[in-house]
Amino acid sequence: MVIRPCGAALGAFVDGVSLATLNAEVFKVLYKAFLQYRVLFFRDQSLSPEQHLALGKRFGELELAHPFFPHLAQHDQVVIIETSLGNPPGESFWHTDMTWQAIPPKCSILHAQYVPPVGGDTLWCDMAAVFADLSNEEQNHLRTLNTIHALHAFEGSRYDAVDANGQSRVAQKSQAYPSIVRPMVTRHPETGDEVLFINEQFTRSVQGWEDAQSQALLDRLFAIARQDRFHVRLKWQAGTVAIWDNRVTQHFAVTDYGDQPRRLHRVTVQGLPD
After folding, report:
1. Does residue 160 carry a pLDDT above 60?
2. Which of 38, 52, 97, 262 is catalytic?
3. pLDDT at 91 over 60
4. For position 215, which CATH number holds?
5. Active-site annotation holder among 52, 251, 262, 265
6. Pick from 71, 75, 73: nearest CA to 49
C-alpha cells in the first residue's frame, strides 16, 4: 500500500489496496490516513453494493435513506447520483453533506460507476485550514457565533416535484427537518482541530443578526474558502472511490459536462453526538 499526498491542504491517493477485501490491519492504516488527509482517493475499485455498504460500516453506523435522493431498489442506503441524456445536473454549491440534520454525517464514500471522458471533477476544501488562516481576533469572534442550517436548498431543484395541489414535495418533507442551530466553529471529535463549520448550500444565516449583516459575513468567509490553496481536485474515472471526512471538509461538484451520462453511488456514515 502506498499513500501519495496530492494537495497542498488535503487529499491523498492510496494505491495497492482493494477496498472490497480490507483486513483490520490495513483498515487501521487507512483510517489514520483518513483523519490526516481529510479525503482519500482510490482508483480501479470494484465494489458491489453489498461491499460498498460493508466498507461504510467499517467507519460506523450508516445513515438511513436520504429523504430526496434516488437510491438502489434493493439497497436504500446506497444513493444514486446520476446524469443522463436530457437530465443534466442542477446548479452546484459548495456544501458539507446534510448539515441540516441534528447530527451531520461523519463521512461519505462515493464510487464512480461511469463518468464522462471530460469534466465532472469534484473539489474538496479543508475548513480547518480556512479557520487556521484567519486572524486570532477573527477566530475569537467567530467562536462566539451560532449559525442556522436548513434543508431549503433542495426546494425547486431536480430532486423536487410538485403535487396535484401545487405543493413542493421538498417543502412538505422539510417539515420533518426543522432548522438547526449550531456553532459556527466546531472542534473535530478525533483530531481536535477547530473547523469553520459553514457551507454555502445549507447555512442560512448567523443567529440573531440582521439579514444583510449576516449575509455579508457569510459571503466573506465563503469567498476565503473558495481559494484554491485550501482545495484538492479529483478527476473521476470509472471505479474511482473517494472517502471524505464530512466533519472538516466541504466539496463542490463541477457541472461542466452537460447531460453526458454519469453515475456514482454514495454511502454515508452517521455522525456521533457531541
Report:
1. no
2. 97
3. yes
4. 3.60.130.10
5. 251
6. 75
Q: For this structure, is 97 an active site residue?
A: yes
Marked catalytic residue, from 95, 149, 182, 204 = 95
Cα separation, 62 vs 268, in Å, equals 6
Note if 251 is an active site residue: yes
| Domain-embedded: residue 274 | no
In a domain? residue 216: yes
Q: Roughly how many angstroms between the first and final C-alpha of the chain, as a whole number? A: 34
Catalytic pick among 38, 52, 262, 266: 266
63 falls within a domain: yes
- Is 150 inside a domain boundary? yes
pLDDT at 151: 82
Print the domain residue range for 105. Answer: 2-269
Q: Which triple of cell numbers denotes residue 247?
A: 466533519
132-144: average pLDDT? 98
What is the pLDDT of the chain when averaged over all its residues? 92
| Cβ atoms of 202 and 105 closer than 8 Å | no
Query: Domain total for the chain?
Result: 1
Question: pLDDT tens digits for 165-216?
Answer: 666 666 666 666 789 999 999 999 999 999 999 999 999 999 999 999 999 9
